[in-house]
Amino acid sequence: MLESKWGLRLIALALAVFFFLSANNVFGNMFNADKFSQKSTETIENVPVETKYDSHKLYANNVPDKVDVDISGPQSQVLKAENGQNIKVTLDLAGAKAGKHTVQYKVNGLSKDINYKVKPKEATVKLEEKVTKELKVDPDVSSDNIDADYKIADQSVSPEKVKVTGGQSQIDKIAYLKAHYKNKSKIAKDTTDLADITAFDRNLNKLKVSIRPNDVNLTTKVEPYSKKVKVKTKTTGSLADGKDLAKIKLDKDEVEIYGNREDLQDIDSITGEVNLDDISDDTEKNVDFKLPKNVSKVQPDNTTAKITVK
Q1: Exposure pattern of 78-87 as b/e (b: 16+ CB <10 Å)?
Q2: Most exposed: 48, 198, 219, 228, by fewest CB within 10 Å?
Q3: Highest mean pLDDT out of 27-36, 209-218, 274-283
């Protein structure tokens, strides 16, 4: 047979078919079908939850954003489910009216060979009549957002008011709407940028409500960092013979010092030196300030000392 032309052709055809089937894993699929494959169990974490309800008239409270789903079944199908984007978790409240409803989660997008368990398996959702209210937005820029060489001179938002939609109980809890920059970089100049808005209750717990527009322009004006400190007097020199110092009163006993926030943090006072040499009567003297290290300037840069002797 090997010596005949047709025999050689048949062998070549058989080899071609064999290599084709091997390349396409037909044999592997035949002998490793799902029903004969190893079982596997995995947990898919943070799967988004879709809640179905009449969102035109109602607002849903207490709905988790994400849940974990345990899946088990043939290993190949489990791996496919882990890597795929088709899995969806829903809470079906279509047709439900205002009130509390306990509903089990449903999972779609899995093979029929896969078993699943949602953790937790159900949610208690409160549906309320939808309410919309216009509320004022407060700028929320702190010293943490500002370069240490500067401080906030002024801050404002535009627009100043937004529309907030939610259930009546959530709307009633709102104590603050705060706008905070999306960009986290330190501010070292007058800045206007987009800011997110977050609703808080009186204890600064975040509230889930819908806000439109959901961002505003937040403007922050800055100025060189400064702080007010007390002035302490220090005397040098000596009064005229036979004279004693009764008191020294400064015209300015509090001044503004400038510098880096961290450098000035532990400075609570500066010194004004008063020279008493040859003073025999009540008098006034100009006093310059002795500045600590890292204080760039002081305003005012001097003061007047009223010296009383006896």
Answers
A1: beebeeeeeb
A2: 228
A3: 209-218
Integer Cα distance of 89 and 106 in angstroms: 6
Per-residue model confidence (pLDDT) at position 114: 87
| In contact, 273 and 288? CB cutoff 8 Å | yes
- In 3-state terms, what secondary structure has residue 10? helix
> Which token pair is 167?
């259930």
Contact at 8 Å (CB) between 117 and 78?
no
In the three-class reduction of DSSP (H, G, I as helix; E, B as strand; rest coil), residue 136 is classed as: strand
CB-based contacts of 128, cutoff 8 Å, min separation 6: 58, 59, 61, 98, 166, 167, 168, 169, 170
Q: What is the dihedral of CA 145, 205, 88, 39, to 10 degrees?
A: 90
The radius of gyration computed from the CA coordinates of the chain, to the nearest angstrom, equals 38
What is the tens place of the pLDDT at every residue in 64-120? 889 999 989 888 888 887 776 678 899 999 999 999 999 999 998 888 888 899 989
Of 204, 210, 218, nearest in space to 133 by CA = 210
The per-residue pLDDT for 63 is 84
Q: Are 252 and 303 in contact (CB under 8 A)?
A: yes
Mean pLDDT of all residues belonging to the chain: 87
pTM over 0.85: no
Structure tokens that stand for 206 in this block: 């975040």
Residue 34 sits at φ, ψ, to 5 deg, of -55, -35
Answer whether 177's CB lies under 8 Å from 160's CB: no
